[in-house]
Amino acid sequence: MFLEKRAERTYQMQELRKQLLREMCDGDEAKFSEGKHSFEDLRDAELKNLVVDDNHGIIYCYIPKVACTNWKRVMLVLNKSEPYQDPMSIAGDLVHNANMLTQLTSFPRTEIKAKLKHYTKFLFVRDPFVRLISAYRDKFQRHNQYYYHYFARYILRVYGNNTNPPQTVEEAFASGTLPSFYNFIQYLVDPGTESTEPFEPHWRQMHRLCHPCLIQYDFVGHQESLQEDAKQLLSILKLEDAIKFPPSYENMTASTSVLDWFRTVPLEDRRKLYQLYEADFMLFGYSKPDELLDD
Predict the structure, then answer these.
(1) Alpha-carbon gap, residue 10 to 20, rounded angstroms
(2) Rg (CA), the chain
(3) What residues pair up with 222 in beta bridges, in sequence order?
(4) Are 119 and 57 spatial neighbours (Cβ–Cβ below 8 Å)?
(5) 0.85 exceeded by the pTM?
(6) How far apart are CA 56 and CA 244, in angstroms?
(7) Cross-strand pairs, 121
(8) Cα–Cα distance between 173 and 107 in angstroms, integer?
(9) Torsion angle, CA of 149/152/158/159, rounded to 10 degrees?
(10) Each residue of 183-215: pLDDT tens digit?
């Protein structure tokens, strides 16, 4: 009885999420679709986060910092033959290799449209500010030469008052010369940041990666209810007995710590940041964080 009620509650929640998306998109499509009116207006570069499993008729739009490593593991396993191997047996680094999964854009446009019409399409989202904290922790508080070289050094020079940051990530960690969380937020709210190219995908707005007003998703999962949602989705796909979604790990950024992270960020910049990510809050049903935005 308890399990039946829980399943019913999960089902109702899913319907509410999809209903909210439809209502928001119908109400102000221009705001949420960057002026685009239909799928036809999207370039291939804007569809590169959609991956396909033709065996089961599934399309997954992955969003970095929202369980995407584990869902990519699942997609990879499903592309192989049964019995499916344990998704956790696949190295996390391996699944981010672009050649490992089938990109939707590898097909002609007519086929892409047909797949979008007939396949089960899903995405997973997360509280937008928690996602940003997670991106900061992952890319700037760990030894990552790529992100240090292409982003951290620039952020240190422009917002960290450091004219000559260390050349390598090892030197930066040894000397404690790393961008602060506030430096990262300054970088995001600076209108010049996107003047040459869009935000890097780990901090690009979720709706800009997956275009939920132009692509009608069949399932919208939330990181905050990841295990329940994963179970429900695998059940919908009739795969619940064939594959198990990997367990969540303890180190996930918790929404309770958001206030602590933002203590160093002035009110004006918090408000600018909210404006940048407001569409994600609204489309995916996340409450406006008034405790961060009020005087």
Answers:
(1) 15
(2) 20
(3) 125
(4) yes
(5) yes
(6) 16
(7) 59
(8) 43
(9) -170
(10) 999 999 999 999 988 999 999 999 999 999 999
